[in-house]
Amino acid sequence: MLDMFWQYNGDSLYLAAFAASLGLLYDTDRKKGGTTGKKAVIALGLSILFVFNELAYQLMGRITEAKTYYRFFWMLPVLFLIAYQLTEAFFSRQKKRILAAALIFALCLGFGANLFISRKNLSRPLNIYGLAPDTITVADAIMEDWGRERKKQPVAAFDMYLEYQVRTYEPRICWAVSRQAYLYQAEHGYDQKKYPFQQRIIAAVNEGIHGDAAKLKRSLKKLGVHYLVIRTEYDMDSYLSQLSIEPVKQSDNYTVYRVRKEA
Questions:
Q1: Higher pLDDT, 45 or 75
Q2: Do the beta carbons of residue 75 and residue 11 sit within 8 Å?
Q3: pTM of this prediction exceeds 0.70
């Protein structure tokens, strides 16, 4: 459970900002005689007792996807409260509240220096998403090769893992293979009953299968694919060269292939 918590930004400055926002909410309500701040603090305590513990994690994991469960259950309320408090403080121009928030934030950082911040966080990281290096190299290579003057967006096919990563980093790249097609293929295999064109592309990019080159070419044309991204270890150069598909760039583990260029 703790690993999942850290994976979804549980080791970031969000927690310090959340604590500062919660403190401001509690203080504001206390002065006005309201109970929202007190209820928020109580709700936080109860959530730790009944939700954010190993037992609840295991039970919820049996019902739904545990990673998704923790991602949304803890991140959404944290982010909304931060946004609410910062917006209210700055638009109301309450300097005391802004200074109080900055002080609470600093105290949180000082209290948990190893938890909230480390030397590597003192400067803005290039890879702010924590993605695999392959993702950035591949996506940047596609967009650089595609060019900025084109009106269309590039369509690319990736294996299932890299597709998930790229959509987080570079949303301008369109998928050649849908999520539904990947899920269908994973359950039914290459039965060609549904998503036949996408299944041929999945075979090439996800598993490095050297299928019927003519059928793959038709599938690429049908779906308007501009790039294929395939693990270099599959050694697809000679197979793809039959279709006039040429390598553009390599990352640590993948090769980017240009299918065709269209104005």
A1: 45
A2: no
A3: no
